[in-house]
Amino acid sequence: MPATANVRLDAGTLPVMEAFYTIQGEGHHRGKAAYFIRLGGCDVGCHWCDVKESWDANAHPAVAVADLVRAAAGFPARLAVVTGGEPLMHNLDGLCGALRAAGFRTHLETSGAHLLSGRWDWICFSPKKFKAPHPGAYAAADELKVVVFHRSDLAWAESFADRVKPACKLLLQPEWSRSQETLPLIVDYVKENPRWEISLQIHKFMNIP
């Protein structure tokens, strides 16, 4: 079951499922080298989630923010992506501030289900039907990325499009296990509604994390 409470351990540590250097595989910044920090803990619980092992924050070790930043700094890119799980279950002010102080551009991937913390250069807002977004998510989003599992998700995506800021990128992404069914629908939809773009999980095609 997904976690149900804020499980931040203290101001200087966070539960980390994994942290690794790779290529951003989806969304507006796909193709860029980035250091990913995947935090444990999620109370959204998407049934098609491909990282369900991230849901229980208590299953992952508490890592000091300073150690996370030090590890990230060991790689050439200065782009850090904080993801989950649902990372906003934790207060991210300390992590975000430390990354920025070390010269990193900070990106966040979130369902928007919790109050925003941290100062971000880019926020990917990917709302889910399983838990409504916090009202503050709309104005903060730089990118609205909707995962399409059923045809009905296209109309659901439109319910968010007019609530984000005009400069926000609008992306439709096929859920990986159903991409053969949903990608043709998305292609036709974007051709008819060109304010939207298509996001593909290119890291899965490249067989990288």
Q: Can you put this structure into words, describing what you see?
A:
- The chain has one domain (13-206): TIM Barrel (Alpha-Beta Barrel), CATH 3.20.20.
- Helix 1 (65-72) packs parallel to helix 2 (93-101).
- The chain is globular and about 45 Å long.
- Helix content is 24%, strand content 24%.
- The protein is an alpha/beta fold and 209 residues long.
- It contains 6 helices and 9 strands.
- The two termini are 24 Å apart.
- It has a 9-stranded mixed sheet with strand order 3-1-2-4-5-6-7-8-9.
Offer a concise description of the structure.
Helix content is about 25%, strand content about 25%.
Structural class, judged by helices and strands?
Answer: alpha/beta
DSSP, total strands: 9
The CATH superfamily appears as Aldolase class I
- Helix tally equals 6
Label this structure with key terms:
209 residues; alpha/beta; TIM Barrel; nine-stranded mixed beta sheet; 6 helices; 24% helix; globular; disordered N terminus
Task: Please specify the SSE layout and strand pairing.
Blueprint (H helix, E strand, L loop, with lengths): L12 E11 L9 E7 L22 E3 H8 L6 E5 L9 H9 L3 E6 L11 E4 L11 H4 L2 E6 L3 H10 L7 E6 L4 H14 L3 E3 L3 H5 L3
